[in-house]
Amino acid sequence: MKATATEEPVFEPVPEPIGGPALPLPHAARLVGRVRVPVTLTVRPWARLYELPDGRRLWCVRLWEHGEVVTRCLAPSTLRRYARASGLRELERDLREVEEGPRGDLA
Fold it and tell me: With the CA atoms of 88, 93, 94 and 97 taken in that order, what torsion angle do they form, in degrees rounded to the nearest 10?
């Protein structure tokens, strides 16, 4: 089937790596929670939500790319947009539950 300009764009859950091949999170980053992200029918890597010392939150997913495992980190809004665009309502619900969890020292 030939692609046309009117087709909806395809969204990837993790479009860009941040900081290079393997971005280590600061040791002070706190793991908030994790969810499985359906990328294909057989691939469902864990996405882990981290809270950084300054209060920002990042989802990090480890994926295979060119025979290597690459950690990709992205804003929560990006992963929610992927879930919404892909019609993954269960993933949207799971993301919301984890993201609405306690912040900072309240855990």
Answer: 160
58: left (phi over 0), alpha (psi -120 to 50) or beta: beta
- Asked if the structure places residue 51 within a domain, the reply is yes
In a domain, 2, yes or no: no
**pLDDT tens-digit series, residues 7-29:** 555 455 554 444 444 455 556 78
User: Sheet of 57-65: strands edge to edge?
Assistant: 30-36, 46-51, 57-65, 68-74
Beta strands in the chain (DSSP E): 30-36, 46-51, 57-65, 68-74
Question: Is residue 14 one of the residues assigned to a domain?
Answer: no
Q: How many domains does the chain have?
A: 1
Q: Is residue 25 part of a domain?
A: no
- Round to whole Å and give the CA distance between 4 and 62: 32
What residues make up the domain containing 34? 30-102
Which pLDDT belongs to residue 2? 47
